[in-house]
Amino acid sequence: MTEVKSIEKPDDRRDFPMGHLEIVNMTGLVFGKATFEPGWRWTESVKDIAGTELCEVHHNGYVIQGRLRIRMRDGAEAEVDAGDVFVVEPGHDAWVVGDEPAVVLDFAGGIGDYAKA
């Protein structure tokens, strides 16, 4: 089997304050491309949509552009920058650092539930 789709023609697009998510659903893979504008923060832009205090989605990601700061429920923090590959467990907040949009590719199946009521 071969399956090919373009993120330029996503199966779903979810808009939220200061950003959006484009999703492609494939056999065995939910692929997302998220764009976060400067000033975006999960607890301010997505929290009310998700209905949880922190992001409860697991992320396997790659940063194409920009920088994000991530704070886990236990207070541990990390920063991811363009070119970084990362794994983040559920229970975190995240925000854009600097004046450049952050663009992130996400390969975790949980991204299909991101920014969804």
Automatic annotation (TrEMBL):
It holds the Pfam family Cupin_2. Residues 59-106 form the Cupin type-2 domain. CDD domains: cupin_DUF861 (cd06990). This is Cupin domain-containing protein. It comes from Actinomadura livida.
